[in-house]
Amino acid sequence: MKDFAYLSAPDVPTALQAIARPGARFLGGGTNLVDLMRQNIERPDTVIDITRLPLDRVEELPGGGLRVGALVRNSHLAAHRAVRERYPMLAQAILAGASGQLRNMATVGGNLLQRTRCAYFTDLSAGCNKRQPGSGCDAVGGFNRNAAVLGASASCVATHPSDMCVALAALDAVVELESVRGVRRVPLTGFHRLPGDTPQVETEIAADELITAVELPALPVAAASRYRKIRDRASYAFALVSVAAAMHARDGVITDIRLALGGVATRPWRAHQAERELLGAPATEESFRRAAEAELAAAVPQSQNGFKIELAQRAITATLRQLLTEGGAA
Amino acid sequence: MADVHLRINGVDRRLEVEPRVSLLDALRERLGLTGTKKGCDQGACGACTVLADGERVLSCLALAVQYEGREITTIEGVADPIQRAFVRHDGFQCGYCTSGQICSALGMLAEHAAGAPSAVTEGLAAAEIELTEAEIRERMSGNLCRCGAYNGIVAAIQETQETRVAERDVPTLVEGRR
What we know:
The complex is a heterodimer.
Chain A: E1 5-8, H1 12-18, E2 24-27, H2 33-38, E3 46-49, E4 58-60, E5 66-69, H3 74-79, H4 81-86, H5 88-95, H6 100-105, H7 108-112, H8 164-170, E6 174-179, E7 182-187, H9 188-191, E8 210-216, E9 225-230, E10 241-250, E11 253-262, E12 269-270, H10 272-278, H11 285-296, H12 307-326
Parallel strand pairs in A: 1-3, 2-3
Antiparallel strand pairs in A: 4-5, 5-8, 6-7, 6-8, 9-10, 10-11, 11-12
Helix pairs in contact in A: 5-8, 10-11, 11-12
Chain B: E1 2-8, E2 11-17, H1 23-30, E3 49-52, E4 55-58, E5 71-73, H2 81-88, H3 98-113, H4 133-139, H5 150-177
Parallel strand pairs in B: 1-5
Antiparallel strand pairs in B: 1-2, 3-4, 3-5
């Protein structure tokens, strides 16, 4: 690992001043950044440790939402009683990711910024437009079984790896960003960018901004929600396909629906098309299947990942069926 | 260079390290605590698991400077019946993953005792979660064993948990007799 200057920020203003240094990066739990630094994928000149900032609390918002500090550990958020009862899909999504040790280290803010696990991104001898703009994409025509079928471009087909963000996308979460210029709020669904021809720019965050919190709005339908993850191993593996879903039906008609997909897209994928199909539709297997087909209609497979399209459709249908028959995960 | 103070296994230790030195390398190369093992060095295998303020973490992904002032427990600081249980149940073959398995299991049992759910927990809002074999396997999935001693590892953890539950009930009985 390349050497770097280290600074532990005692408060937010100090951190926001320090990030102006050339080649400076914030360091949270380190579960992704330290790994990438060791592989020389990330080479910061200054590392600003933010783990001592007072952003590690989960607070109730007036009106029934939650404000989650950016440095709340993944494990602590998943175990939080209000999350388990009011947003069970979020607790399930977090618990479906990584391992116990990693969840104890990883922060909420860091989870939002984690990098793809596309094999070519971490292979310094390979072409990867995300790591080295203009170097090409070796996943197209290469090993692309794990690649995206939604939201990809000719320059990048890498999936976003997070489970947590899939639930946050479904829950209408809002990301709070702070810099010396002030505070702004960005919806989670607009936080991650599609790759287009600039896959190296992954989010809306500016170079001098710090994620300070994620807000979960009050969302009664989320109490009946689930996260389903399909992967090659039963545990400790990234998603091939995942579904975050919340549904409310009255008299057999769907009156509220939140749906998002993971493992299939270049960013946490809010399934707007499926939601439009489902809202007001009868809560039946037929509706679920039609909505799933509508969402995946725009899917474009690579040479090895065509199976994800049908798998995603089946996973959506199965998750909604389970919500209908068994209710949420709480 | 950075001046780092850590409390390791109850002893205050001070060392000068470059910021890029991992907690794992600081323990092994600088402090001679080689019980903590380096497996993958990229957060995938769990061999380097230690406890930081009682929580299990991966020391290979931890920069030593980040853990300034923290209480670190390595296998050298563990004296727990779980160690005999691993021996009794053949919870290892080559032994390379064992210190990580044991530190992870201790952290895991504490998480469970505090009421934390897992990915296989049915009914997330339940107050009590039974530590079934499926729960143990899921909660320990971050510790790989190349020899495949998983059945023995699970049995050792199960026995430790049962003993702890039984012993937790003893003081109540003693108190009741007074």
